[in-house]
Amino acid sequence: MADKKINLTLKVWRQRGPKEKGEFKTYEAKNVSTDESFLEMLDQVNENLVKKGEDPIVFDHDCREGICGSCGFMINGDAHGPQKSTTVCQLHMRAFKDGEVLTLEPWRATAFPIQKDLMVDRSALDRIVQSGGFITANTGSAQDANSILIPKTKADEAFESATCIGCGACVASCKNAAAHLFTSAKISHLALLPQGEVEAERRALRMVAQMDAEGFGACTSTGACSASCPKDISLTNIARMNREYLKASINRKEESGGGGDG
Amino acid sequence: MASNFDSRIPGGPLDSKWTQHKFNMKLVNPANKRKHSVIVVGTGLAGASAAASMGELGYQVKAFCVHESPRRAHSVAAQGGINAAKNYQNDGDSIFRLFYDTVKGGDFRAREANVYRLAQLSVDIIDQAVAQGVPLAREYGGLLANRSFGGAQVSRTFYARGQTGQQLLLGAYSGMMRQVDGGNVQLYSRREMLDLVMIDGKARGIIVRNLLTGEIESHEADCVVMCTGGYSNVFFLSTNAMACAVTAAWRAHKRGAYFANPCFTQIHPTCIPVHGDLQSKLTLMSESLRNDGRVWVPKNKGDKRAAKDIPEAERDYYLERIYPSFGNLAPRDIASRQAKFRCDEGRGVGETGQAVYLDFSDAIKRLGRDKIAERYGNLFQMYEKITGENPYETPMKIYPAPHYTMGGLWVDYNLMSTIPGLFVAGEANFSDHGANRLGASALMQGLADGYFVVPYTVSDYIANNKVEKVSTSHEAFKAAAEGVRAEISKLMSVKGTRTVDSFHKELGRLMWEHCGMSRNEKGLKEALVQIPKLREAFWSDVRIPGDANEINTELEKACRVADFIELGELMCRDALERKESCGGHFRDEYQTPDNEALRDDQNFCHVAAWEWKGASQPPVRHQEELKFENIKLSARSYK
Q1: What average pLDDT does this structure show over B584-611?
Q2: Does chain A have fewer CB atoms within 10 Å around its N or its C terminus?
Q3: How large is the average pLDDT for residues B64-90?
Q4: What is the per-residue pLDDT for B455?
Q5: Three-class secondary structure assignment of B472-492
């Protein structure tokens, strides 16, 4: 841990409220230790702003361990910054060089309205989960956990999909602001498990419908989402979602058809 | 003393208390449940599981969280695992053994009846989680896998790689979101509880600040369940998330809820050491790493050679040496204290000398790099991101850090506080871990409380108390909201020179030095002189820019720090009064010749529950005696 000091110039998007006009403002971050995290560097900038009586730069953050999914903004056009598989709270200043100029912008998507500065409203993602991202299992109704056998490879695959932290980087990186990676990760996680099979079709239909209703865009398979994902959620999830959705759509016709159409 | 200061432990034999109690509790007719409302504050494991379960029962639940999304509550960061007495490994585990290990691990300062219930419910939690699709680790045969954790000689910890908390929370969250969709749970995010509203001596609602608009809102219900987590952030640097605070619990305390054992804090042995003054938090490295990692320091003081250059014969694997039967899996309080002793002796490593090694080289030799990566990959990756060092090649450097608080609001067997109608679940209550919590037991307790205890005891409360409907236009709501507004404008009007963080850091340093891993009379008395001065300085010199009627992160922090300062004082008082060493509370004056904690069961085999008496009067200490009828009260040994 060789601690070095660097100086940076930050161009930060400042916007007072959802309906106000925003603009870039320039700040100097001086004497930044390379052992600091990116958010600690911003803390330092904010500490100086507060001392001068100015409003600090607002950004969402909480666990600072890369797991709660609160943090995230664009650094020079990259969601969560330049380091792969890393949330911005886990990004450390040793990834930057002395004298660099960094542009910080909030996630930009119709479905993620800006609240203030770098903070956006991602509750659309909650509503997607609410529409079907669960297994109906009331408390107390479960059988013994080991009565369901799940092959290790299946369980591991489901786990990989389940590690999504809901940060929204996939949406922000997508030129269409699509939420396919987020939605498909949840659909996959549950569809891969025997417990999730029962509701798989209803889940796929409802979650996709909600995703569209929230104003997220369409998927054109560029893969920017997965490339920017701090948890490396794979594109195969989207393929699985499409398959689940197609299967569910065909079955839905059979169910509701009922012979009336001749 | 509050008439409600009664543990209400049901009679009968230990193993049938809960079953019998469930039968004795009153029920609410299914058709009537929708006429009753419950407020749940906090959406971590305890809060989300309580909200989901009560929503399923048919209650009208209002769930509040400070986060933008309930899925971001700090339970999400729990890494290593969750204990359950399934005995799937055929290694001699049982409900009684989990109960025994937990009581002993807590250094005999928890209630037998509560802990036994926790051990009983542990098995149901795993069933529930699997039914929800929580992807717990599995063996090739498709059965669930287990790992070992500290303070136990059986393998009973279920896990999802190093992300067990995240997966369990997403399970509880998805259950709750299903109830949001069904209309039984109403979600209020980005709201911070700033007061408890009482009518006719009962908890009837809360006052919250809407963190987006600054609006002070009033919400009413038949009763209130607080699941607002612990207070480790009183130390400023801790493994807790930035928004973790005592505020909700402290405001309830000021309304009459007793605060129990505030000095029982857990300093976790394996965290990434402090790097500098600008550090904002500390990062835990899961205790599960001690399954395969070996803890050591050089035998010689001031040995500055790189780890790989220190030969085997010159290394002291001190946990294996001192505690041969538990070795590296000694409980957290003991492992932390030993790390401190080694560093105090001058045998610490790294630039600051405030670290010990956690070394995986033997395990990598034995199992291969891939196996270690499969078990701990994400933790190794996190370590490397933070420190820039690769733990596959050089041993991790670790040091203890504040992590969990066993103390919290006092509750009876029903998890109800001394305020009727105010229930407290999860880390926010004091109930099950005594003076030290064993690893993988926090997730267990949060979910046991939320899924399986609170839904029953809340029903019993509602059935027994004919709670009249109230409206938020009631005088009590108006007065409480006014009080909150007045406090906020007082804070905003100080317009001093110092930032909120500067006060928080100063408090943290005082607490770490005087009420941290070891405490003594002189230091605690010194802290009790310094903290009131700090409080005065805070209220006369804090600077909060901006407006209270919009997003104002400095104001949010200021409200929390104001409460931490008051809590810090209570912690020191509690530590001073407890003239013994037990679990995480180590008083220098009370130790055995080989530096182990020396309990005083004659005088301190009790819970200390503090009653707030107003800002101008000292709090009053009450005692709940602890009886050990099923486990012999004995000196704790892990040797």
Answers
A1: 97
A2: C
A3: 97
A4: 98
A5: CCCHHHHHHHHHHHHHHHHHH
CA distance A142 to chain B (A): 5
Query: Under an 8 A CB cutoff, do B132 and A43 touch?
Result: no
Q: Which two tokens stand for residue A193?
A: 């498990």
Confidence at residue B375, expressed as pLDDT on a 0 to 100 scale: 84
pLDDT at B372 over 60: yes
Phi, psi angles (nearest 5°) of residue B15: -80, -5
Asked whether the beta carbons of residue B167 and residue A44 sit closer than 8 angstroms, the reply is: no
Return the pLDDT at A254: 54
- Of A163, A178, A167, nearest to A223 (Cα)? A178
Contact A64 B181 (CB under 8 A): no
Q: How would DSSP label each residue in B375-409? A: HHHHHHHHHHHHHS--TTTS-EEEEEEEEEES-EE
Asked whether the predicted pLDDT for residue B518 surpasses 50, the reply is yes
Token representation of residue B455: 């839904």
> Rounded to a whole number, what is the distance in Å from the CA of A192 to chain B's nearest CA?
10
- Split at pLDDT 50, 70, 90, the class of A258 is very low
- Partner A contacted by B22 (CB < 8 A): no
CB contact under 8 A, B174 and A135: yes
- pLDDT classification of A2: cutoffs 50, 70, 90: low
Most B-contacting residue of A34, A67, A163 (CB-CB within 10 A), to test interface: A67
- From the candidates B332, B347, B437, B560, which is the catalytic residue? B332
| Catalytic residue list contains B332 | yes
Query: Average pLDDT of chain A?
Result: 95
Q: For residues A4 and B422, which has the higher predicted lDDT (pLDDT)?
A: B422
Please state, in angstroms and rounded to a whole number, the distance separating the CA atoms of residues B417 and A98.
Answer: 55
B476-625, which class in CATH?
mainly alpha
pLDDT surpasses 50 at A261: no
Q: Where are the domains of chain B?
A: 269-402, 476-625
* Span B446-479, pLDDT tens digits: 999 999 999 999 999 999 998 999 999 999 999 9
Query: Hey, do A5-116 and A123-257 end up sharing a CATH topology, with the first three levels equal?
Result: no
Return the residue in A48, A68, A93 with the most chain B beta carbons within 10 A, the one to mutate for interface testing. Answer: A68
Write the pLDDT tens digit of every residue in A234-249.
999 999 999 999 999 9
Q: Do strands B60-64 and B185-188 pair parallel, antiparallel, or not at all (unpaired)?
A: parallel
Architecture of domain A123-257: Orthogonal Bundle (1.10)
Interface confidence (ipTM) of the complex:
0.96
CA distance B329 to B332: 8
pLDDT at residue A262 is higher than 70: no
Give the minimum alpha-carbon distance from A107 to chain B in angstroms, rounded to a whole number.
Answer: 15
The answer to whether B590 and B580 have CB atoms below 8 angstroms apart is yes
- Closest partner residue to B177 (CB to CB) among A61, A126, A146 is A126
B269-402 adopts what CATH topology?
A: Flavocytochrome C3; Chain A, domain 1 (3.90.700)
For residue A86 the two structure tokens come to 């890393």
- In B, minimum Cα distance to A161 occurs at B135
Q: Among all residues of chain A, which has the CA nearest to that of B121?
A: A140
> Cα torsion at B426, B428, B429, B431 (round to 10°)?
50
Alpha carbon of B139: minimum distance to chain A alpha carbons (Å)? 6
The lowest-confidence range among A1-5, A210-214, B45-49 is A1-5
Q: Which of B56, B73, B499 sits opposite A51 (nearest CB)?
A: B499
Report, at the CATH architecture level, how domain A5-116 is classified: Roll (3.10)
Shortest CA distance from A203: residue in chain B: B178
Instruction: Sketch the domain layout of chain A as residue ranges.
Output: 5-116, 123-257
Is B130 within 8 Å of A195 (Cβ atoms)? yes
- Minimal Cα distance from A125: which residue of B? B69
Report the pLDDT value the prediction gives residue A259, as an integer from 0 to 100: 45
SS3 for B36?
coil
Kind of pairing between the strands at A5-14 and A101-105: parallel
Name which of A91, A135, A146 is nearest B143 (Cβ-Cβ). Answer: A146
Chain A interface, mutation test: which of B127, B187, B286, most A Cβ atoms within 10 Å?
A: B127
